[in-house]
């Protein structure tokens, strides 16, 4: 791994704790100059601790690397532009962006408030767009760059009590895909990663049957063994020159497993030369397609085998 990102500048948002911290530390170990961004809020986006980002930057420097820190909010477009300028001024540019910042406001959909919806969409989806937009200005000028955006199987598959988070994370997939198409002429690549790891984020996810359901305990114990340090290797690899041809993809990491996730494509079609009526749709089209329908599954239902 040593030298894999030598000469590159990597910006990691939400890097003060958990998975983001591990990503930033490994980028430094791989030779990158690292901009560590974290506002230092609670898991719900409240409170501020501007020291968190600097603590991680200090760890990178203590290990012989080069790093700066920034406590800007990804939802503040002016602050985001300033952060990108800081990358240029203090670290000499920007080559690889990791959109990792996020919060949770878990609630069953019928009880979710407008504020809980807006806060999660703003940090995850709008935040990813804000950083990506600012980074693209540099990437276009230098004719190259890489982005990895954190999605989630909550968005790809669905999850209990996370409609706001799921919507934002699936939106990020569409954002990444569009960036990969729009920016291809500037040699900018954009990929998504859905991480499985126990963190303060996953610790809040509602359990099936309620948090005290004893049937959930074995599963939750396995989740706790999914270490966050399993996530960075793929992100480091995607930021390297060896992955310069990889863009527009969705990956997932669960323990020692790496998945390439499918993307929406036609499954089945039906045709009637005379066209359709509501009655023929019910009698013909829907029955013909029904065997390929997806049920109301959660991420856990889809990834239903033991990773450990």
Quick structural summary:
By secondary structure, this protein is of the alpha/beta class.
Descriptive overview:
This is SDR family NAD(P)-dependent oxidoreductase. It comes from Candidatus Marimicrobium litorale. Helices cover 40% and strands 14% of the residues. It has 308 residues and is of the alpha/beta class. The protein has one domain: NAD(P)-binding Rossmann-like Domain (Rossmann fold, 3-Layer(aba) Sandwich). Strand 2, helix 2 and strand 3 form a beta-alpha-beta unit. Helix 1 packs parallel to helix 2 and helix 1 packs across helix 8. The longest helix has 29 residues. The model has no long low-confidence stretch (mean pLDDT 91).
Q: Which characteristics define this entry?
A:
308 residues, alpha/beta, Peroxisomal_Beta-Oxidation, globular, 14% strand, Rossmann fold, 40% helix, 10 helices, eight-stranded mixed beta sheet
Instruction: Characterize the biggest β-sheet.
Output: 8 strands, mixed
Number of DSSP strand runs: 8
Estimated radius of gyration = 21 Å
Order of helices and strands: EHEHEHEHEHHEHHEEHH
Q: Which fold name fills CATH's third level, the topology?
A: Rossmann fold
The number of distinct helices, counting runs of at least 4 residues, comes to: 10
Uncertain regions: pLDDT < 50 for 5+ in a row? none
Supply the number of structural domains.
1
CATH class: Alpha Beta
Give the structural class.
alpha/beta
- Chain-averaged pLDDT: 91
Shape: globular
Task: State the distance separating the first and last CA atoms.
Answer: 25 Å
Domain Ketoreductase: 8-209
Family: Belongs to the short-chain dehydrogenases/reductases (SDR) family.
Organism: Candidatus Marimicrobium litorale
Protein name: SDR family NAD(P)-dependent oxidoreductase
